[in-house]
């Protein structure tokens, strides 16, 4: 009797498990990211969740863009009537590696308590995300447009432009459906790999079991919200780090290219055009972000670890010329910050370096709200 009862319980449990998994395959599971405790039970984050050392940073990287946005102190339902909303997208320099939220570009601009000519508060929101890819930025902007911005600031750097590396960013590689939709809508020149999975593998990926990591990440993000809300900590701030190289290798290549000029067909200028088209009547300001300009060994060949001089100079020429011919709003801040203000990368600034960037940038953008 006990054996039969146990068998029946196990069979019924297995049946329920199978039925739940079958039903789950028709659920739009990414939309579960819209269910969030942030801005309700916990205060919203100042920037997107990102990181691997969850124990110390109360943070994690995940691929659900809905959940990323829902975790922010940013409301898509209703923009306050007294707010002029500025979204700042971009890479890790925008997100703020080694910087506290209030030390980032968006954080320092927001702390200025700027006002429009009609008395609205100018608010800056950090939508930067580490990894270098213009297509990743475009994907984030696509979701960000639902948050009704009045102005978009888009800091960029050459490392985000190579067409053959647009999908190297994990968040891009794990959201190929979104990127394919953008490709079709804006005619982007991207090679999106075909789904090589069998029909059975694709079906399995839609089940609860197949999505267990993504579902666990959504739950963990909510759990870490309690610690973030209590401490304001969202990344690890090491006492020591390896500083960005000032003495450089005698290597004049970039992305495997020899020069002396960049092949414009191999850099994703079309993605910038797509972002401007996506924004419609909302101004987009492209900002060539500051980079470390070394005076060390082989600095006559390279500006920094990322860029040989020929490639970066040609990139600046191309971006300036294209902006002029297309009427893009473009600001070049490439050498606005001295090399001593960079931290662990040729694009990461310390708080004083960000202040110098703000000082150079602000006079060139305040006309958008005054």
What does this molecule look like?
This protein has 370 residues and is of the alpha/beta class. The chain is built from 13 helices and five strands. It has helices at 2-24, 54-57, 65-70, 92-95, 105-110, 134-144, 170-173, 176-186, 199-205, 212-231, 269-279, 309-326, 351-365, and strands spanning 83-90, 121-128, 151-156, 284-288, 329-332. A five-stranded parallel β-sheet has the order 2-1-3-4-5, sandwiched between helices. Helix 6 packs parallel to helix 11 (269-279). The radius of gyration is 23 Å and the shape is globular.
SSE map:
Elements: H1 2-24, H2 54-57, H3 65-70, E1 83-90, H4 92-95, H5 105-110, E2 121-128, H6 134-144, E3 151-156, H7 170-173, H8 176-186, H9 199-205, H10 212-231, H11 269-279, E4 284-288, H12 309-326, E5 329-332, H13 351-365
Parallel strand pairs: 1-2, 1-3, 3-4, 4-5
Helix pairs in contact: 6-11
- What characteristic shape results from the CA principal axes? globular
Largest sheet: 5 strands, parallel
Percent of residues in beta strands: 5-15%
Distance between the termini: 82 Å
Order of helices and strands: HHHEHHEHEHHHHHEHEH
Radius of gyration over C-alpha positions, nearest whole angstrom: 23 Å
Structural class: alpha/beta
Comma- or semicolon-separated keywords:
370 residues, alpha/beta, five-stranded parallel beta sheet, 13 helices, 38% helix
Brief overview:
By secondary structure, this protein is of the alpha/beta class. It has helices at 2-24, 54-57, 65-70, 92-95, 105-110, 134-144, 170-173, 176-186, 199-205, 212-231, 269-279, 309-326, 351-365; strands at 83-90, 121-128, 151-156, 284-288, 329-332. It contains 13 helices and 5 strands.
């Amino acid at each position: 009797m006990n054996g039969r009862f146990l068998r029946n319980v196990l069979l019924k449990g297995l049946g329920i498990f199978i039925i739940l998994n079958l039903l789950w395959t028709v659920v739009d599971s990414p939309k579960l990211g819209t269910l969030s405790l942030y801005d309700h039970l916990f205060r919203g984050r100042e920037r997107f969740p990102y990181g691997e050392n969850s124990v110390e940073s109360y943070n994690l990287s995940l691929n659900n863009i809905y959940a990323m946005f829902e975790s922010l102190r940013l409301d898509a339902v209703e923009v306050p009537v007294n707010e002029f909303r500025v979204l700042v997208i971009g890479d890790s320099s925008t997100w703020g590696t080694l910087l506290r939220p209030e030390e980032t570009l968006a954080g320092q601009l927001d702390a200025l308590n700027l006002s429009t000519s009609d008395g609205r508060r100018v608010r800056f929101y950090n939508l930067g995300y580490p990894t270098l890819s213009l297509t990743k930025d475009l994907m984030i902007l696509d979701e960000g447009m639902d948050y009704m911005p009045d102005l978009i600031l888009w800091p960029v750097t050459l490392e985000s432009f190579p067409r053959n590396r647009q999908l190297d960013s994990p968040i891009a590689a794990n959201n190929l459906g979104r990127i394919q939709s953008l490709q079709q809508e804006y005619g982007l020149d991207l090679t999106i790999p075909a789904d090589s999975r069998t029909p059975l593998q694709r079906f399995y990926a839609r089940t609860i079991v197949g999505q267990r990591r993504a579902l666990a990440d959504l739950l963990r993000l909510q759990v870490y919200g309690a610690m973030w809300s209590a401490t304001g900590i969202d990344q690890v701030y090491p006492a020591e780090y390896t500083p960005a190289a000032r003495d450089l290798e005698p290597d004049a290549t970039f992305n495997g290219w020899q020069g002396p000029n960049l092949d414009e067909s191999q850099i994703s200028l079309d993605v910038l055009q797509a972002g401007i088209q996506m924004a419609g009547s909302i101004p987009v300001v492209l900002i060539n972000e500051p980079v470390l300009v070394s005076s060390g060994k082989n600095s006559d060949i390279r500006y920094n670890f990322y860029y040989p001089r020929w490639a970066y100079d040609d990139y600046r020429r191309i971006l300036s010329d294209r902006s002029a011919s297309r009427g893009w709003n473009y600001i070049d801040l490439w050498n606005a910050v001295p090399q001593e203000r960079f931290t662990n990368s040729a694009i990461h600034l310390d708080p004083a370096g960000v202040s110098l960037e703000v000082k150079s940038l602000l006079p060139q953008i305040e006309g958008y709200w005054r």
